[in-house]
Design goal:
single chain; mainly alpha; 5 helices; globular; disordered C terminus
């Protein structure tokens, strides 16, 4: 949530950094930062799904959602964006491959 609030407060800066007109190198650095944040906060995976793959998928989804949000002329409040991301990511988090199997 902290990153979303910061992006909201600094919309013009974030639009320049990660918006459609920003440079590839800047976007890649930001993507890696988001990946590290997601990876550090992601619980251990089980099954056949590698943890890094899950972290890459979630961080890419977050980056694209944040980029879309920053480009909006009247973006939704940060709390709504955070809730939207959680709602969109929920199916991924509930996938059995991401969580240890529960005993029957």
């Amino acid at each position: 949530m902290g990153l979303i609030e910061h992006a909201y407060e600094q919309r013009q800066l974030f639009r320049a950094l990660i918006g459609r007109r920003s440079g590839y190198a800047v976007q890649q650095r930001f993507r890696e930062m988001v990946f590290r944040l997601v990876s550090d906060g992601l619980p251990a995976t089980s099954g056949k799904l590698p943890q890094e793959a899950a972290a890459r998928w979630l961080s890419a989804a977050f980056f694209e959602l944040l980029s879309w949000w920053i480009e909006q002329h009247t973006p939704m409040p940060p709390t709504e964006l955070a809730a939207l991301f959680i709602e969109l990511a929920q199916p991924v988090r509930l996938t059995p491959a991401l969580h240890p199997a529960s005993p029957p």
